[in-house]
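Appendix C: a fully annotated inverse folding record. The material below is reproduced so that readers can follow the format used throughout the book. The structure is listed first as tokens, followed by the designed sequence.
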């Protein structure tokens, strides 16, 4: 089985619609794909309706977290999307995205970048506006060559000249909320140092003690030595290890299935989840299968 557990659609900052994403996943030879848009499950229904036979969808989200002044992302899988406490927290994070984007646009204009809200809103479309949309606008303006080039201290990286913090969930609280909603938690790209400061291993150990299920090891932002180190750390802490593409469509260079998750790990994730079930494809005639 080929399993990719981290992808994004136009429901957040990807460029493929949820329907395009699942069709692309099938065309890429995947057996399982997780849709994990930032702080939202809004794309799940469309993905399920378009899900082709032979592909299984894992519903999820990538939660924006912060502790000790450091940002991190928590992948949440197979939670009940209507559980009130987790839903309220996700909405709080999403609601802060628009004023934050306006503030970053203002900072960029102060730095001489002729960017405007209308341009960023057009790029974001119906998705939850975020830094990748602002970075795409900077590419359009010729300020940077690629989206990744905007995520530097000069521009939009954590702590960068145009960076503005948004509301983010404490990761220990995120684990509690996801568990209460029947879901499974995996720390996304924990050693992606090019994105900004990363968590020390001691904090990952504390997260594991608080109920973290796994860490994302095989990821484009982890070099081979980093993957070896993370795999050893996961073994010490009893954590699952996943691999995935972090696919964003044309916004990033990664492709669907570039990194994958071991089928045994996937099986353990599905065994631990009680909030929702993976959805098997049936030729685009699916209905959401939520809750036991």
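Designed amino acids, in order:
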């Amino acid at each position: 089985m080929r399993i990719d557990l981290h992808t994004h659609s136009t429901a957040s900052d990807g460029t493929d619609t949820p329907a395009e994403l699942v069709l692309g996943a099938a065309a890429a030879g995947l057996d399982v794909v997780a849709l994990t848009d930032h702080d939202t499950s809004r794309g799940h229904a469309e993905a399920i309706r378009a899900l082709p036979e032979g592909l299984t969808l894992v519903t999820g989200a990538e939660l924006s977290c912060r502790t000790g002044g450091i940002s991190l992302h928590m992948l949440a899988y197979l939670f009940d999307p209507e559980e009130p406490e987790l839903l309220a927290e996700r909405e709080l994070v999403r609601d802060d995205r628009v004023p934050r984007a306006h503030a970053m646009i203002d900072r960029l204009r102060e730095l001489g970048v002729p960017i405007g809200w209308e341009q960023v809103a057009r790029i974001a479309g119906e998705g939850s506006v975020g830094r990748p949309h602002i970075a795409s606008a900077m590419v359009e303006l010729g300020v940077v060559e690629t989206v990744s080039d905007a995520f530097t201290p000069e521009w939009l990286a954590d702590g960068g000249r145009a960076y503005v913090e948004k509301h983010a969930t404490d990761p220990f609280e995120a684990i509690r909320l996801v568990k209460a909603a029947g879901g499974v938690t995996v720390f996304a790209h924990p050693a992606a140092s090019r994105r900004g400061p990363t968590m020390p291993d001691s904090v990952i150990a504390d997260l594991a003690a608080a109920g973290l299920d796994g860490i994302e090891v095989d990821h484009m932002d982890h070099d081979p030595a980093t993957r070896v180190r993370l795999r050893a750390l996961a073994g010490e802490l009893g954590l699952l290890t996943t691999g995935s593409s972090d696919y964003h469509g044309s916004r990033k260079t990664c492709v669907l299935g570039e990194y994958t998750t071991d089928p045994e790990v996937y099986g353990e994730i599905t065994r631990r989840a009680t909030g929702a079930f993976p959805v098997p494809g049936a030729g685009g005639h699916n209905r959401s299968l939520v809750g036991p």
